[in-house]
Amino acid sequence: MEQKEMLKNFLGEEALEEKDFSPLMLAYLGDAVFEIAVRTHLCKSGNQRIKDFHKQSIQYVNAEMQSQIVHALFDELSEKEQEIVKKGRNTKSTVPKSASAVSYRYATGFEALLGYLYVTGQRDRLLWTLDRSIQIGENRLSKK
After folding, report:
1. How many Cβ atoms are within 10 Å of 101's Cβ, its own excluded?
2. What is the CATH superfamily name and number for domain 20-142?
3. What pLDDT, in 10s, does the model give residues 102-126?
4. C-beta neighbour count of 144 within 10 angstroms
5. Per annotation, catalytic residue among 31, 75, 124, 131
6. What is the dihedral of CA 46, 66, 33, 21, to 10 degrees?
């Protein structure tokens, strides 16, 4: 793939096909998409030390929170989106010691959903999902 074509894909100007990506590949991309969305959201609050931004971002970008987000979001997803979450959740992968197996699997499903929306060029749906996910995360964090 040429450099220009890769950039088009990165910017979401050209949709790719879901079948070209395993659920773990979608989750890998979805992880990056969510990370940049959370970082962008946090940076809107104004200048802080990077250390403080990082502490805030890991409250969103962790298996437990992502599991809570996807559970809260699930009924608002289309059948196809729910299918992607389930495929990501059911994919075999190594669970880190910092997360429970159940939370990690659901977090993988959540990330697969974001990756799917990203690679298939569903920009409006991706933005809605990210916005809704951050809202859910904020609500959960405010209750702590």
Report:
1. 9
2. Ribonuclease III domain (1.10.1520.10)
3. 888 999 999 999 999 999 989 999 9
4. 5
5. 31
6. 180
Give the tens place of pLDDT for each residue, 36-72: 999 888 888 777 787 887 888 888 889 999 999 999 9
Question: Are the C-beta atoms of 54 and 91 separated by less than 8 Å?
Answer: no
- Residue 19's pLDDT is 79
Closest C-alpha to 27, from 77, 102, 86, 69: 86
Tokens found for residue 109:
């499903």
Cα gap 120→73, rounded to integer Å: 20
Residue ranges per structural domain of the chain = 20-142
With a CB cutoff of 8 Å and minimum separation 6, the contacts of 56 are 42
- Does the annotation count 31 as an active-site position? yes
Q: What predicted TM-score, i.e. pTM, was given to this entire model? A: 0.88
